[in-house]
Design goal:
The chain is of the alpha+beta class and 277 residues long. The protein is 43% helix and 21% strand.
């Protein structure tokens, strides 16, 4: 693994945020949501840059830690640990990148809060951070590390084939969204990027009591099973905070932050609704 790639992982973990937030509980006379969003975005990035990985990981929801674990398992097999701070430490040890220089002066150029969701624009980031409030706290819900480099086989795939796959996956995702909404869930479309295998579509919804459900649609059932494999370590580490279900080409991931426990009945009910059972 060369230094450039490891450096990219460190900076991508910081700058390619899919959802970001703060672990500071809401207080009646405390800072506004916008101030919390801005402050915690800086806290996470600066902690990562300063090598304060425990502090950085404290800002991550179980689903974000799962993103990190899945990426490392698929793309950085030389890293054997699964604990979030230890993962970041090994990445740093294996690379010569000085992330502090890039993250020391983080600038949040804009924040937009809408009820329990928000976006934060970070100068130099390739996409805005998206935030969600759960149980009065803002948490980083997902980390994106960008698309993996295409293989030779990928480069020979015809445009028409890719278009057909995308259309089929889009229809599949639309059906899942429609079923969930019919069952009373508020469903949001998410960016379908990330690790190999890359999902063709992604959705999210709330399960109540601070729990959330992420839905990932893949080209094949084999791809969905492969994507679920890296979650095994996290399921052993935090069995009460995460649940994973694979149904055909669909992967469902339920999460809740500690010390709460994921309501398994709510998770199963949502999965059944999505699958039309």
């Amino acid at each position: 693994m060369n230094t450039l790639r490891l450096a990219g992982v460190m900076l991508a973990a910081a700058l390619l945020l899919a959802a970001c937030g703060t672990s500071t509980p809401e207080t009646p006379k405390g800072p506004s949501d916008a101030q919390q969003v801005s402050a915690t975005t800086k806290t996470y990035l600066q902690a990562l840059g300063a090598g304060q990985y425990t502090e950085a990981c404290n800002q991550l929801a179980p689903s974000a830690k799962a993103d990190l674990t899945a990426y490392v398992s698929a793309q950085l097999p030389e890293i054997s640990v699964t604990d979030c701070p230890a993962v970041y430490q090994q990445i740093a040890d294996l690379s010569d990148v000085d992330a502090a220089g890039a993250l020391e002066k983080v600038t949040v150029t804009g924040v937009k809060v809408t009820d329990t969701t928000a976006t934060a624009t970070v100068k130099g980031a390739t996409q805005p951070a998206r935030l969600t409030k759960q149980s009065g706290a803002w948490k980083i819900a997902h980390l994106s590390f960008g698309d993996p480099e295409p293989t030779a086989a990928d480069s020979t795939t015809s445009d028409s084939s890719q278009g057909t796959t995308a259309a089929a996956s889009g229809d599949d995702s639309a059906q899942i969204k429609s079923r969930l909404e019919a069952a009373g869930y508020e469903v949001s479309d998410e960016e379908a990027g990330g690790d190999d295998p890359v999902p063709t579509a992604a959705l999210s919804t709330e399960l109540g009591h601070g729990a959330s459900l992420a839905v990932y649609v893949y080209d094949t059932a084999t791809a969905a099973k492969t994507a679920a494999k890296p979650f095994d370590a996290l399921l052993k580490q935090s069995p009460g905070q995460i649940a994973v279900n694979v149904s055909g080409a669909h992967m469902y991931v339920g999460t809740i932050e500690e010390p709460h426990h994921l309501p398994k009945t709510a998770f199963t009910t949502a999965v059944n609704a999505a699958e039309g059972h």
